[in-house]
Amino acid sequence: MSNVVQLPRWIDVGVLPLLNLLLALVVSALLVLAIGENPVEVVEILLYGAFGYDEAWGYTLYYTTNFVFTGLSFAVAFHCGLFNIGAEGQAYVGGLGVTLAALYLDFLPFPLMLVVGMMAAAIFGAAWAYIPAYLQARRGSHIVITTIMFNFIASSLMVYLLVNVLRPQGSMTPESEQIAEHLRLPFIHDMAAAFGIDMASSPLNLSFVYAIAASILVWMFIWHTRWGYAIRTVGANAVAATYGGIDPGRYIIIAMMISGALASFMALNEVMGVQHRLLIDFTAGYGFVGIAVALMGRNHPFGIFLAALLFGMLYQGGAELSFEIPTISNDMVVVIQGLVILFTGAMEHMFRPRVTKIYTAWRLRRDRMEAA
Amino acid sequence: MHQMHGTGETGAVQPAIELRGIDKRFGAVHANKEIDLKVDKGTIHGIVGENGAGKSTLMSILYGFYQADGGTIHVDGKLCDIKGSEDAIAAGIGMVHQHFMLVETFSVLENVILGVEGGAVLRDGVDKARVELERLEREYSLDIDPDAIVGDLSVGLQQRVEILKALYRGAEILILDEPTGVLTPQEADHLFRILATLKEQGKTVVLITHKLREIMAATDNVSVMRQGAMVADRKTAQTSPEELSELMVGRRVLLRLEKGEANPGATVLQVNDLCVDNAQGVRKVKNASFTVRAGEIVGIAGVSGNGQSELLEALGGIRSASEGSVLLNDQDVTPGKGVDAAELRKRGVAHVPEDRHRMAMVTGFTAKEAAILGYEDDPAYNNSILLDWHAISKATANMMLEFDVRPDDPDLKAANFSGGNQQKLVLAREIMRDPELLLVGQPTRGVDIGAIEFIHKRIVAMRDAGKAVLLVSVELDEIMSLADRILVMCDGVIIGEVSAAEANERVLGLMMAGVDPNEAKAVEGQA
């Protein structure tokens, strides 16, 4: 007897995340009260900092770009039943790919570099994801363990490369040479200026457009191609996949490599778009936050985009907050972000039973009234 | 304890269980509608009904897993408020579940006292329990070594442990939920003898089953449920399987399938000395050799877990062969290197697997997504890059029309269809490909009677269309009514072959227990 009521989509993807978010904000407000500040004022500053002026918008969307890529990365692997916790390392190594392409192929014209840079990032990121994927698919090593270890390996490898190989002679900082000016992704404000539109300058660049395109492509891939179908089948029921002639191992590897490539596109934003060189630890935790973004967005590109926007807002508004209210330190902002991740990601099922109960009771009453 | 050898006609005696107006809804589903039920003391009372008729819900309410929305439960004439299984046990109700609730690594004794150990020091409880357990075993002739490890026992003996567990907790009323699903016919007969002993000792037994043969053989009274309502109470002696099945379905049903003579043609599938190992490297199929010809149904009978699942999965390309070979129309298709499920499908092998939820479909998918599993690469379902959902919807709607799948909504989640309709969708997906060879495992497991009739007809239609059919089922009735030739498997070995004409339950049952076919027939001759 099926006593599991299926919630309609608008509750599943709308009401539940909002409830979780609200709870995170309530707990945050209590914290703010505890250190003697006014929560209403804090929210005002947060929102103003994220959306209140042109430049803020640019920063918010720049952060959003990173979250979209890492969120999509997690989602693709998740649809295959894999918990890819290694976006951080994959993006980091992807950054190496972009940097090497830009430094050693600097004779290429910009339009070609757009493609080559993206491919270099994708190849490096996918290759880094390939090893754990292979180990999972063919040797049964758990992907969570291997990807988290590969984050550490990536980190050490990059430190070595930046200090010993990529560091220009005579420089004291562990970072690569600057990539040639003509190979950098244009800033949105520069692009707007070319059309005669005046925009405040911000790090927002062309990769934001990539992020939107990637969201659409991932959506098409997952739900409208046979490979996406195969990946979802493997993720939902690997035995059924084998029965259908879909080799789970093969699609585990494919899904992980796509996941790694998507994570590495974050490097397009950071390396080709903003920093213009390879910096140590440029991934700065975006890979991990991508997990929360994807879970909050129900692993759907549209949801991921909204969740990424929320986190972009928290990052940008949070920076403003710690600047405006000195008692709210940067650590406090991190705590608030952590609460949002905790409630929307890790504890996302907390309200589900209660909401299901309320919904069922409501529907029952409606059915009875209609019957009467 | 011996005062009442109930015949069920003593009006003055309070019934052991009386349910009055039990009502239960799950959301929009009305699972139990104002159910009244009287079970007389010292009788075996059968409850039959199709899947989803509400039998399990009713028993779960009686055992305290669910709370009824309305109605009352009376045990021995006293109103009982059963809020959990502890209350049920306190009222003297014991339950033997379809899937045993045993710790396999514990001994029989340890399993029996689990949860009623009595005190912090295990030793005292164990000693007392041993005495009590031995008394129970004597009283009900339930012989079993208290120190045997449960995992080493056969399924029939494990079931005995479950019964002992209930008796140890002082059960006067024993509910058995589909108890014979995992037993050989001989083990089932033994179980019914145990139930008869329990009855003699004054216990009351409620037997839930969908097998009418067992109802007729073992019960005193029978109640029939249909679509959540109790539709009839009968004395078993005064009813017939035909009447019961009609009551269950609500219309007349053909219990015995009418089919013409088989017209076997060329050999389609030839299996030579096939060996299959499971994931742990244990050999599950040992040197199986047989053929299936066009236009015949070959049935494989056996108690669940004797290698027939692995055999079917190997032939479907899901498991690799360790040794031996498989030929399809004289071409080598030995499962393993290069030959997987996808390759076999291309060569005209359709496979309806034994386990619908584990293997045949992804229950979280929509019906149209489920309808292309295994065929998602088909050009008819694809534009150059993207899946053609429009074409897939149309194909699914066609399948639903052809196989009477209800509701006929390709966008509904597979999980929201009833078992019978899920199975019809899977059959439609496989049969409508017009395969050369159809592999079918447990085609009617968890399927209601009306759908069983339909599914059996479609399988016979495949045969009559000149296709080869290999049928694996643990339901002997199904094998005997569908198959033209019957192979019996025991412990991975094909013990022997019986033609449908000379097959009967006793011979097959003995062979399923590993007795050589000639010997089995000899034993049958003496009987």
Automatic annotation (TrEMBL), chain A:
The chain crosses the membrane at residues 12-36, 56-78, 85-104, 110-131, 143-163, 204-222, 252-271, 278-296, 302-321, 333-351. It is found in: Cell membrane. It comes from the Bacteria. GO terms for cellular component: plasma membrane. Its main location: membrane. It holds the Pfam family BPD_transp_2. InterPro entries: ABC_transp_permease. This is Sugar ABC transporter permease. The keyword Membrane applies. Keywords: Cell membrane, Membrane, Transmembrane, Transmembrane helix. It is a multi-pass membrane protein. One of its GO terms (molecular function) is transmembrane transporter activity.
